[in-house]
Amino acid sequence: MSHPSSLSSSAMRALQLELKSLQSEPVEGFTVTCDDDCLFKWTVGIFGPPGTLYQGGYFKATLKFPPNYPYAPPGTIYLF
Predict the structure, then answer these.
(1) Is the distance from CB of 3 to CB of 15 less than 8 angstroms?
(2) In the chain, fewer beta carbons within 10 Å around the N or the C end?
(3) Contacts with 60 (C-beta within 8 Å, 6 or more apart), sequence order
(4) pLDDT tens profile 37-66
(5) How far is CA 65 from CA 2, 9, 41, 78, in A?
(6) By C-alpha distance, which of 30, 17, 20, 38 is closest to 61?
(7) 42 burial class (0-12, 13-18, 19+ CB within 10 angstroms)?
């Protein structure tokens, strides 16, 4: 997977482990994929839970992880 050269190896290891875990044991109501084979940019799909105002909805977000992840949080962009 491609990544800018300035990104730390500890951030890459953390993201690889988290992505592998989410793909092998998915969380109900969520999907996670990497965008353009870049480990530091994820696309998240959220399905509206039954019995709520969001039921039947599908919400998409992009997560961009910083080089010092997990010590700094990802940026989030919600796509409507």
Answers:
(1) no
(2) C
(3) 43, 44, 45, 46, 78, 79
(4) 789 999 999 999 999 999 999 999 999 999
(5) 14, 13, 6, 15
(6) 30
(7) buried
Longest Cα–Cα distance of the chain, Å, equals 46
Tell me the average pLDDT of the chain: 89
Hey, which residues does 18 pair with through a beta bridge?
none
Looking at the structure of the chain, the number of domains it has is 1
Q: What is the CATH number of the domain that holds 59?
A: 3.10.110.10
Is 43 domain-assigned? yes
**Based on the number of CB atoms within 10 Å of its own CB, is 14 exposed (0-12), middle (13-18) or buried (19 or more)?**
middle
Amino acid letter for position 80: F
Range(s) of the domain holding residue 25: 9-79
Is 53 among the domain residues?
Answer: yes
